[in-house]
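Researcher: We're teaching a course module on how sequence relates to structure. For the next exercise, students receive a sequence and then see the predicted structure as tokens, so they can try to spot secondary structure elements on their own. Here is the exercise chain.
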Amino acid sequence: MHINIRQPQLAEYPLLVELWEASVRATHHFLTEKDIEFYRPLVATCLPMLKVHCVDANERIKGFIATGEQMIQALFIHPDARGKGVGKKLIDFAITDLNIVKVDVNEQNEQAVGFYEYLGFKIIGRSKLDGAGKPYPILNMELNPS
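Model: And here is the predicted structure for the students to work with:
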């Protein structure tokens, strides 16, 4: 699969929210339908405030990474592109081109925690609540912490 990383056009942001939802439904089994409905407008509102890069494959967006405050704020891969190198390519880009070394990840998303650990991130902290104050613990991870 040929992977092209680029910044999305503002008109493509609704597609990113759709991709976010598909990814969440495939990986965040701990969230309820009510949670997804709660987070969807937050994602739609926050994405344009972040630096977003997406991956195109076969002329479709297959994943995106959003960065801000010197960390990965979001990484979501379309379910049909999981396991094909899209996430790793976006992380490598964030580390190499954007100097990103931190990420917060849902503790209950064990696949994501394992993915970041595989890429060299280490857990440096834990919050009992997520950024919206919901009871979904967040692990603070860093690449090569001192």
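Model: If you want an answer key for the exercise: The chain has one domain: 4-143. The chain has four helices and seven strands.
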